[in-house]
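Newbie here. two chains, one complex. Structure please?
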Amino acid sequence: MAEEALGRTPLYEEHEKAGARLVPFAGWEMPVQYEGVKAEHEAVRNHAGLFDVSHMGEVVFRGPDAEKAVQRLVTRDVGRLETGQAGYAAVCYESGGTVDDVLVYKNPDDFLVVVNAANREKDVAHFQEHTDGLDVEIADESDDWALLALQGPKAEGILQGFTGTDLSGLKYYRYVVGEVDGLYAVISRTGYTGEDGFELYVRPDGAAPLWRLLVEAGAAPVGLGARDTLRLEAGMCLYGNELDPETTPLEAGIAFAVHLDKEERFLGQEALRREREEGLRKKLVGFKVEGRGIARHEHPVAVDGETVGTVTSGTQSPTLGEAIGLALVLPEVEDSFDVVIRDRPAKARTAQLPFYKRQKK
Amino acid sequence: MAVPQDLQYTKSHEWVRVESGVATVGITEHAQDELGDVVFVELPEQGATLAAGDSFGAVESVKAVSDLYAPVGGEVVEVNGMLEDSPEKINEDPYGEGWILKLRISDEADLLSAADYERLLEGES
Protein backbone atom coordinates (compact mmCIF):
# COMPACT_ATOMS: atom_id res chain seq x y z
CA MET A 1 0.00 0.00 0.00
CA ALA A 2 1.40 3.36 -0.98
CA GLU A 3 1.64 5.71 1.94
CA GLU A 4 2.33 9.37 1.71
CA ALA A 5 5.49 10.29 3.57
CA LEU A 6 4.68 11.76 6.97
CA GLY A 7 6.22 15.02 8.07
CA ARG A 8 8.62 15.07 10.99
CA THR A 9 9.08 18.06 13.24
CA PRO A 10 12.56 19.22 14.32
CA LEU A 11 11.82 17.45 17.62
CA TYR A 12 11.29 14.00 16.16
CA GLU A 13 14.54 12.65 17.59
CA GLU A 14 13.75 14.06 21.02
CA HIS A 15 10.43 12.23 20.97
CA GLU A 16 12.06 8.97 19.98
CA LYS A 17 14.65 9.34 22.74
CA ALA A 18 11.92 10.05 25.27
CA GLY A 19 10.16 6.82 24.32
CA ALA A 20 7.15 8.51 22.77
CA ARG A 21 4.51 6.56 20.91
CA LEU A 22 4.42 8.24 17.52
CA VAL A 23 1.28 8.19 15.40
CA PRO A 24 0.25 9.73 12.08
CA PHE A 25 -1.65 12.96 12.74
CA ALA A 26 -2.69 15.48 10.07
CA GLY A 27 0.14 14.29 7.83
CA TRP A 28 2.74 14.37 10.59
CA GLU A 29 4.38 11.76 12.74
CA MET A 30 3.47 13.09 16.17
CA PRO A 31 3.84 11.89 19.77
CA VAL A 32 0.49 10.77 21.18
CA GLN A 33 1.96 9.92 24.58
CA TYR A 34 5.20 9.46 26.53
CA GLU A 35 4.58 8.32 30.11
CA GLY A 36 0.83 7.93 29.71
CA VAL A 37 -2.09 10.25 29.04
CA LYS A 38 -3.20 10.52 32.68
CA ALA A 39 0.24 11.26 34.10
CA GLU A 40 0.90 13.85 31.40
CA HIS A 41 -2.50 15.44 31.92
CA GLU A 42 -1.83 15.75 35.64
CA ALA A 43 1.65 17.16 35.02
CA VAL A 44 0.08 20.06 33.11
CA ARG A 45 -2.67 20.66 35.69
CA ASN A 46 -0.31 20.54 38.68
CA HIS A 47 3.15 21.40 37.42
CA ALA A 48 4.26 22.03 33.84
CA GLY A 49 4.06 20.15 30.58
CA LEU A 50 5.86 20.65 27.29
CA PHE A 51 4.19 20.01 23.93
CA ASP A 52 5.60 19.87 20.43
CA VAL A 53 3.01 21.59 18.27
CA SER A 54 5.36 22.36 15.39
CA HIS A 55 2.89 20.76 12.99
CA MET A 56 0.71 23.88 13.30
CA GLY A 57 0.87 26.19 10.28
CA GLU A 58 2.16 29.77 10.29
CA VAL A 59 0.81 31.99 7.52
CA VAL A 60 2.05 35.59 7.27
CA PHE A 61 0.06 38.43 5.65
CA ARG A 62 2.32 41.28 4.44
CA GLY A 63 1.86 44.43 2.41
CA PRO A 64 -0.26 47.58 2.37
CA ASP A 65 -3.52 45.63 2.43
CA ALA A 66 -2.52 42.97 4.97
CA GLU A 67 -5.01 44.17 7.56
CA LYS A 68 -7.78 44.48 5.00
CA ALA A 69 -7.11 40.92 3.85
CA VAL A 70 -7.20 39.47 7.36
CA GLN A 71 -10.34 41.46 8.15
CA ARG A 72 -12.03 40.00 5.09
CA LEU A 73 -11.07 36.45 6.08
CA VAL A 74 -11.65 36.15 9.82
CA THR A 75 -14.63 36.67 12.12
CA ARG A 76 -12.79 38.76 14.72
CA ASP A 77 -12.27 42.49 14.27
CA VAL A 78 -8.47 42.40 14.07
CA GLY A 79 -8.45 46.19 13.79
CA ARG A 80 -9.06 46.17 17.53
CA LEU A 81 -5.91 44.16 18.23
CA GLU A 82 -2.94 46.10 19.48
CA THR A 83 0.54 45.33 18.27
CA GLY A 84 1.76 42.51 20.50
CA GLN A 85 -1.70 41.07 20.95
CA ALA A 86 -3.19 37.83 19.66
CA GLY A 87 -6.83 36.99 19.03
CA TYR A 88 -8.73 33.76 18.49
CA ALA A 89 -10.92 33.79 15.38
CA ALA A 90 -12.82 31.62 12.97
CA VAL A 91 -12.41 31.55 9.20
CA CYS A 92 -15.76 31.01 7.49
CA TYR A 93 -17.17 30.21 4.10
CA GLU A 94 -19.85 32.51 2.66
CA SER A 95 -22.33 29.94 4.06
CA GLY A 96 -21.11 30.62 7.59
CA GLY A 97 -19.65 27.10 7.84
CA THR A 98 -16.16 26.96 9.31
CA VAL A 99 -12.96 26.67 7.26
CA ASP A 100 -10.71 26.70 10.32
CA ASP A 101 -10.20 28.23 13.73
CA VAL A 102 -7.04 30.29 13.99
CA LEU A 103 -4.96 32.57 16.16
CA VAL A 104 -4.20 35.99 14.67
CA TYR A 105 -1.09 37.84 15.89
CA LYS A 106 -0.79 41.54 15.16
CA ASN A 107 2.87 42.29 14.47
CA PRO A 108 4.24 45.80 13.92
CA ASP A 109 4.25 45.41 10.12
CA ASP A 110 2.26 42.30 9.35
CA PHE A 111 -0.16 39.68 10.64
CA LEU A 112 0.66 36.11 11.58
CA VAL A 113 -2.22 33.64 11.28
CA VAL A 114 -1.64 30.29 13.00
CA VAL A 115 -3.71 27.53 11.44
CA ASN A 116 -4.44 23.88 12.15
CA ALA A 117 -2.00 21.44 10.57
CA ALA A 118 -4.71 19.46 8.82
CA ASN A 119 -6.12 22.61 7.22
CA ARG A 120 -2.92 24.32 6.15
CA GLU A 121 -3.17 23.83 2.39
CA LYS A 122 -6.92 24.31 2.32
CA ASP A 123 -6.58 27.54 4.30
CA VAL A 124 -3.84 29.03 2.15
CA ALA A 125 -5.87 28.30 -0.99
CA HIS A 126 -8.95 29.86 0.65
CA PHE A 127 -6.93 32.92 1.72
CA GLN A 128 -5.57 33.38 -1.82
CA GLU A 129 -8.95 32.89 -3.44
CA HIS A 130 -10.69 35.51 -1.35
CA THR A 131 -8.12 38.31 -1.36
CA ASP A 132 -8.37 39.21 -5.04
CA GLY A 133 -7.69 42.84 -5.74
CA LEU A 134 -5.81 43.42 -2.48
CA ASP A 135 -2.13 44.34 -2.32
CA VAL A 136 -1.10 41.58 0.06
CA GLU A 137 1.46 38.81 0.11
CA ILE A 138 0.25 35.63 1.79
CA ALA A 139 3.20 33.45 2.71
CA ASP A 140 3.05 29.98 4.22
CA GLU A 141 6.11 30.14 6.50
CA SER A 142 5.28 27.03 8.51
CA ASP A 143 8.58 25.39 7.61
CA ASP A 144 10.50 28.31 9.11
CA TRP A 145 9.04 27.78 12.58
CA ALA A 146 8.96 25.21 15.31
CA LEU A 147 6.36 25.64 18.05
CA LEU A 148 6.65 24.47 21.63
CA ALA A 149 3.92 24.95 24.22
CA LEU A 150 4.93 25.14 27.88
CA GLN A 151 1.77 24.90 29.97
CA GLY A 152 0.88 24.63 33.62
CA PRO A 153 1.10 26.51 36.93
CA LYS A 154 4.90 26.21 36.96
CA ALA A 155 5.35 27.32 33.34
CA GLU A 156 6.18 30.93 34.17
CA GLY A 157 8.67 30.00 36.86
CA ILE A 158 10.48 27.55 34.60
CA LEU A 159 10.62 29.86 31.58
CA GLN A 160 11.64 32.92 33.61
CA GLY A 161 14.86 31.14 34.50
CA PHE A 162 15.99 31.32 30.87
CA THR A 163 14.79 34.67 29.59
CA GLY A 164 15.40 38.34 30.31
CA THR A 165 11.82 39.15 29.34
CA ASP A 166 9.75 39.94 32.42
CA LEU A 167 7.07 37.30 32.12
CA SER A 168 5.03 38.53 35.06
CA GLY A 169 4.25 41.62 32.95
CA LEU A 170 3.12 39.59 29.94
CA LYS A 171 -0.66 39.34 29.93
CA TYR A 172 -2.87 36.58 28.57
CA TYR A 173 -3.04 36.67 24.75
CA ARG A 174 -0.04 39.01 24.54
CA TYR A 175 3.33 38.18 23.09
CA VAL A 176 6.83 39.58 22.86
CA VAL A 177 9.81 38.85 20.67
CA GLY A 178 12.70 37.91 22.89
CA GLU A 179 15.25 35.26 23.67
CA VAL A 180 15.13 32.04 25.63
CA ASP A 181 18.61 30.89 26.63
CA GLY A 182 20.02 33.02 23.80
CA LEU A 183 17.64 31.53 21.20
CA TYR A 184 15.38 33.84 19.21
CA ALA A 185 11.81 33.22 20.33
CA VAL A 186 8.36 34.71 20.04
CA ILE A 187 7.01 34.28 23.56
CA SER A 188 3.22 34.16 23.50
CA ARG A 189 1.05 33.82 26.58
CA THR A 190 -1.46 31.51 24.93
CA GLY A 191 -2.36 27.85 25.05
CA TYR A 192 -4.88 25.09 24.57
CA THR A 193 -5.00 23.47 27.99
CA GLY A 194 -6.98 25.73 30.34
CA GLU A 195 -3.77 26.47 32.27
CA ASP A 196 -1.51 29.46 32.30
CA GLY A 197 1.37 29.00 29.93
CA PHE A 198 3.30 29.99 26.86
CA GLU A 199 3.63 29.10 23.24
CA LEU A 200 7.17 29.57 22.00
CA TYR A 201 7.76 30.13 18.30
CA VAL A 202 11.39 29.38 17.52
CA ARG A 203 13.54 28.65 14.50
CA PRO A 204 13.66 24.94 13.62
CA ASP A 205 17.29 24.58 14.72
CA GLY A 206 16.44 26.12 18.08
CA ALA A 207 13.68 23.63 18.84
CA ALA A 208 15.71 20.69 20.15
CA PRO A 209 18.01 22.75 22.43
CA LEU A 210 14.98 24.56 23.86
CA TRP A 211 13.10 21.28 24.35
CA ARG A 212 16.01 19.70 26.23
CA LEU A 213 16.46 22.81 28.35
CA LEU A 214 12.83 22.92 29.45
CA VAL A 215 12.65 19.19 30.10
CA GLU A 216 15.80 19.38 32.25
CA ALA A 217 14.17 22.25 34.14
CA GLY A 218 11.28 19.97 35.06
CA ALA A 219 8.66 20.24 32.31
CA ALA A 220 7.12 16.87 31.44
CA PRO A 221 6.84 16.01 27.73
CA VAL A 222 3.14 15.79 26.86
CA GLY A 223 1.61 14.18 23.79
CA LEU A 224 -1.49 14.74 21.70
CA GLY A 225 -3.53 12.36 23.90
CA ALA A 226 -3.35 14.63 26.93
CA ARG A 227 -3.55 17.72 24.73
CA ASP A 228 -7.02 16.50 23.78
CA THR A 229 -8.22 15.70 27.32
CA LEU A 230 -6.86 19.04 28.57
CA ARG A 231 -8.56 21.14 25.90
CA LEU A 232 -11.80 19.22 26.32
CA GLU A 233 -11.86 19.86 30.08
CA ALA A 234 -11.22 23.51 29.25
CA GLY A 235 -14.21 23.45 26.87
CA MET A 236 -12.15 24.41 23.83
CA CYS A 237 -13.12 23.47 20.29
CA LEU A 238 -11.15 21.11 18.08
CA TYR A 239 -11.48 21.59 14.33
CA GLY A 240 -12.89 18.43 12.78
CA ASN A 241 -14.86 17.69 15.95
CA GLU A 242 -16.82 20.75 17.07
CA LEU A 243 -16.04 22.85 13.99
CA ASP A 244 -16.37 21.88 10.36
CA PRO A 245 -17.73 23.24 7.07
CA GLU A 246 -21.28 22.30 8.15
CA THR A 247 -21.03 24.08 11.49
CA THR A 248 -20.85 27.82 12.10
CA PRO A 249 -18.79 29.36 14.89
CA LEU A 250 -22.03 30.57 16.52
CA GLU A 251 -23.33 27.02 16.66
CA ALA A 252 -20.01 25.79 18.06
CA GLY A 253 -20.26 28.27 20.92
CA ILE A 254 -17.38 30.56 19.96
CA ALA A 255 -19.46 33.69 19.38
CA PHE A 256 -16.88 35.55 21.50
CA ALA A 257 -14.55 35.22 18.49
CA VAL A 258 -17.15 36.55 16.04
CA HIS A 259 -17.60 40.30 15.71
CA LEU A 260 -20.80 40.41 13.68
CA ASP A 261 -20.86 44.19 13.93
CA LYS A 262 -17.39 44.81 12.52
CA GLU A 263 -17.43 47.40 9.76
CA GLU A 264 -15.25 45.54 7.31
CA ARG A 265 -17.28 42.89 5.55
CA PHE A 266 -16.01 39.37 6.24
CA LEU A 267 -16.74 36.08 4.57
CA GLY A 268 -19.74 34.47 6.18
CA GLN A 269 -20.87 37.66 7.91
CA GLU A 270 -24.28 37.82 6.24
CA ALA A 271 -25.02 34.16 6.86
CA LEU A 272 -23.99 34.48 10.50
CA ARG A 273 -26.06 37.63 10.99
CA ARG A 274 -29.05 35.86 9.48
CA GLU A 275 -28.49 32.87 11.74
CA ARG A 276 -28.25 35.16 14.76
CA GLU A 277 -31.59 36.75 13.82
CA GLU A 278 -33.41 33.59 12.85
CA GLY A 279 -31.98 31.41 15.60
CA LEU A 280 -29.28 28.74 15.67
CA ARG A 281 -29.91 25.51 13.77
CA LYS A 282 -27.95 23.58 16.38
CA LYS A 283 -26.03 24.41 19.52
CA LEU A 284 -22.96 23.12 21.30
CA VAL A 285 -23.49 21.82 24.81
CA GLY A 286 -21.17 20.35 27.39
CA PHE A 287 -22.43 17.23 29.17
CA LYS A 288 -21.54 14.65 31.75
CA VAL A 289 -22.52 11.01 31.36
CA GLU A 290 -24.54 9.92 34.38
CA GLY A 291 -25.02 6.34 33.24
CA ARG A 292 -22.17 3.91 32.58
CA GLY A 293 -19.82 4.46 29.70
CA ILE A 294 -17.79 7.05 27.87
CA ALA A 295 -19.34 8.97 25.00
CA ARG A 296 -17.11 9.40 21.98
CA HIS A 297 -16.94 11.47 18.80
CA GLU A 298 -19.87 10.65 16.50
CA HIS A 299 -21.99 8.81 19.06
CA PRO A 300 -25.65 9.86 18.62
CA VAL A 301 -27.52 12.05 21.10
CA ALA A 302 -31.15 10.99 21.58
CA VAL A 303 -34.27 12.02 23.47
CA ASP A 304 -37.02 9.39 23.77
CA GLY A 305 -35.24 7.30 21.14
CA GLU A 306 -35.21 10.14 18.62
CA THR A 307 -31.81 11.33 17.40
CA VAL A 308 -31.40 15.02 18.24
CA GLY A 309 -27.67 15.50 17.81
CA THR A 310 -24.17 14.08 17.80
CA VAL A 311 -21.35 13.88 20.28
CA THR A 312 -18.45 15.90 18.88
CA SER A 313 -15.87 15.00 21.55
CA GLY A 314 -15.95 12.77 24.59
CA THR A 315 -13.53 11.32 27.06
CA GLN A 316 -13.01 10.29 30.65
CA SER A 317 -11.94 13.51 32.37
CA PRO A 318 -8.73 12.79 34.28
CA THR A 319 -9.28 15.81 36.54
CA LEU A 320 -12.95 15.17 37.38
CA GLY A 321 -12.92 11.38 37.16
CA GLU A 322 -16.14 11.57 35.15
CA ALA A 323 -17.08 10.95 31.53
CA ILE A 324 -17.47 14.36 29.88
CA GLY A 325 -18.20 15.50 26.37
CA LEU A 326 -19.34 18.13 23.92
CA ALA A 327 -22.28 17.63 21.57
CA LEU A 328 -23.99 19.53 18.79
CA VAL A 329 -27.73 19.19 19.39
CA LEU A 330 -30.98 20.73 18.14
CA PRO A 331 -31.63 24.08 19.82
CA GLU A 332 -34.73 22.87 21.64
CA VAL A 333 -32.87 20.07 23.43
CA GLU A 334 -33.00 20.62 27.18
CA ASP A 335 -30.60 19.67 29.91
CA SER A 336 -31.19 15.93 29.96
CA PHE A 337 -30.69 13.46 27.11
CA ASP A 338 -29.20 10.10 26.21
CA VAL A 339 -25.86 9.51 24.57
CA VAL A 340 -25.96 6.30 22.57
CA ILE A 341 -22.75 4.41 23.34
CA ARG A 342 -22.32 1.36 21.12
CA ASP A 343 -26.10 1.12 20.59
CA ARG A 344 -26.86 1.48 24.29
CA PRO A 345 -28.37 4.72 25.58
CA ALA A 346 -26.72 6.19 28.67
CA LYS A 347 -28.21 9.12 30.61
CA ALA A 348 -26.38 12.40 30.25
CA ARG A 349 -26.93 15.87 31.63
CA THR A 350 -25.69 19.20 30.33
CA ALA A 351 -22.89 20.79 32.29
CA GLN A 352 -21.59 24.32 32.33
CA LEU A 353 -18.49 24.99 30.25
CA PRO A 354 -15.66 24.88 30.88
CA PHE A 355 -15.63 21.62 32.83
CA TYR A 356 -12.41 22.77 34.43
CA LYS A 357 -11.35 26.29 35.31
CA ARG A 358 -8.01 27.03 36.87
CA GLN A 359 -7.73 28.99 40.10
CA LYS A 360 -6.59 32.48 39.20
CA LYS A 361 -3.69 33.83 41.20
CA MET B 1 7.62 -8.11 26.53
CA ALA B 2 7.30 -11.54 28.13
CA VAL B 3 4.45 -13.71 26.89
CA PRO B 4 3.33 -16.21 29.57
CA GLN B 5 3.93 -19.69 28.20
CA ASP B 6 1.02 -21.36 29.99
CA LEU B 7 -1.70 -19.32 28.27
CA GLN B 8 -3.33 -19.35 24.84
CA TYR B 9 -3.98 -16.26 22.73
CA THR B 10 -6.06 -14.67 20.00
CA LYS B 11 -5.08 -12.47 17.09
CA SER B 12 -7.10 -9.69 18.71
CA HIS B 13 -4.76 -9.80 21.76
CA GLU B 14 -6.92 -11.61 24.29
CA TRP B 15 -5.38 -14.29 26.48
CA VAL B 16 -7.15 -17.45 27.60
CA ARG B 17 -6.48 -19.78 30.52
CA VAL B 18 -8.45 -23.04 30.36
CA GLU B 19 -9.05 -24.90 33.63
CA SER B 20 -11.59 -27.74 33.92
CA GLY B 21 -13.82 -26.55 31.10
CA VAL B 22 -13.76 -22.86 32.13
CA ALA B 23 -11.86 -20.25 30.13
CA THR B 24 -10.60 -17.17 31.96
CA VAL B 25 -10.14 -14.30 29.49
CA GLY B 26 -8.20 -11.05 29.62
CA ILE B 27 -6.20 -8.81 27.35
CA THR B 28 -2.47 -9.18 26.93
CA GLU B 29 0.35 -7.02 28.22
CA HIS B 30 0.87 -5.83 24.64
CA ALA B 31 -2.83 -4.89 24.28
CA GLN B 32 -2.90 -2.88 27.53
CA ASP B 33 0.34 -1.16 26.57
CA GLU B 34 -1.08 -0.16 23.18
CA LEU B 35 -4.25 1.19 24.81
CA GLY B 36 -2.64 3.16 27.59
CA ASP B 37 -4.42 4.06 30.85
CA VAL B 38 -7.62 2.00 30.95
CA VAL B 39 -10.50 4.05 32.37
CA PHE B 40 -13.56 1.96 31.60
CA VAL B 41 -14.43 -1.67 30.94
CA GLU B 42 -17.77 -2.65 29.47
CA LEU B 43 -18.64 -6.16 30.64
CA PRO B 44 -21.38 -8.57 29.55
CA GLU B 45 -24.05 -9.84 31.93
CA GLN B 46 -23.36 -12.98 33.87
CA GLY B 47 -25.33 -15.78 32.21
CA ALA B 48 -24.98 -14.33 28.72
CA THR B 49 -24.11 -16.84 26.02
CA LEU B 50 -21.36 -15.95 23.59
CA ALA B 51 -20.26 -17.58 20.36
CA ALA B 52 -16.56 -17.67 19.57
CA GLY B 53 -15.68 -14.38 17.88
CA ASP B 54 -18.62 -12.44 19.35
CA SER B 55 -17.89 -8.93 20.52
CA PHE B 56 -18.78 -9.01 24.22
CA GLY B 57 -17.63 -5.67 25.52
CA ALA B 58 -14.98 -3.04 25.30
CA VAL B 59 -11.95 -1.71 27.07
CA GLU B 60 -11.49 2.05 26.90
CA SER B 61 -8.46 4.10 27.61
CA VAL B 62 -8.56 7.86 27.89
CA LYS B 63 -8.01 8.05 24.17
CA ALA B 64 -9.18 4.87 22.51
CA VAL B 65 -11.79 2.14 22.54
CA SER B 66 -10.90 -1.48 21.90
CA ASP B 67 -13.60 -4.09 21.38
CA LEU B 68 -13.31 -7.40 23.15
CA TYR B 69 -13.98 -10.68 21.35
CA ALA B 70 -14.87 -14.03 22.84
CA PRO B 71 -11.95 -16.38 22.13
CA VAL B 72 -14.20 -19.42 22.64
CA GLY B 73 -17.94 -19.93 22.82
CA GLY B 74 -19.80 -20.47 26.07
CA GLU B 75 -21.80 -19.09 28.93
CA VAL B 76 -20.46 -16.21 31.01
CA VAL B 77 -20.13 -17.68 34.49
CA GLU B 78 -18.32 -14.76 36.11
CA VAL B 79 -17.21 -11.23 35.27
CA ASN B 80 -14.48 -9.35 37.09
CA GLY B 81 -16.58 -6.83 39.01
CA MET B 82 -13.46 -5.22 40.44
CA LEU B 83 -12.82 -3.63 37.04
CA GLU B 84 -15.89 -1.43 37.43
CA ASP B 85 -14.16 0.61 40.12
CA SER B 86 -10.57 -0.24 39.30
CA PRO B 87 -10.21 -0.54 35.53
CA GLU B 88 -6.51 0.28 35.92
CA LYS B 89 -5.98 -3.33 37.09
CA ILE B 90 -5.88 -4.16 33.39
CA ASN B 91 -2.75 -2.03 33.04
CA GLU B 92 -1.20 -3.06 36.32
CA ASP B 93 -1.76 -6.80 36.18
CA PRO B 94 -3.23 -7.87 32.83
CA TYR B 95 -2.65 -11.59 33.41
CA GLY B 96 -3.74 -11.57 37.05
CA GLU B 97 -6.13 -9.17 38.80
CA GLY B 98 -6.95 -7.61 35.44
CA TRP B 99 -8.76 -10.71 34.12
CA ILE B 100 -12.07 -9.82 32.46
CA LEU B 101 -14.45 -12.77 32.42
CA LYS B 102 -14.87 -16.54 32.72
CA LEU B 103 -16.71 -18.64 30.16
CA ARG B 104 -17.96 -22.22 30.53
CA ILE B 105 -16.71 -23.53 27.22
CA SER B 106 -19.34 -24.98 24.88
CA ASP B 107 -17.58 -24.19 21.64
CA GLU B 108 -13.85 -24.63 21.21
CA ALA B 109 -12.00 -22.41 18.81
CA ASP B 110 -8.55 -22.28 17.30
CA LEU B 111 -6.31 -20.37 19.66
CA LEU B 112 -2.71 -19.32 19.27
CA SER B 113 0.01 -20.91 21.36
CA ALA B 114 2.39 -18.64 23.25
CA ALA B 115 5.00 -19.21 20.54
CA ASP B 116 2.49 -18.31 17.79
CA TYR B 117 1.48 -15.17 19.68
CA GLU B 118 5.11 -14.11 20.11
CA ARG B 119 5.56 -14.43 16.35
CA LEU B 120 2.43 -12.34 15.81
CA LEU B 121 3.84 -9.59 18.03
CA GLU B 122 7.18 -9.68 16.24
CA GLY B 123 5.35 -9.34 12.94
CA GLU B 124 3.51 -6.26 14.20
CA SER B 125 6.49 -4.41 15.53
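Moderator note: Residues 114-124 of chain B form the longest helix (11 residues). The radius of gyration of chain B is 13 Å. Thread marked as resolved.
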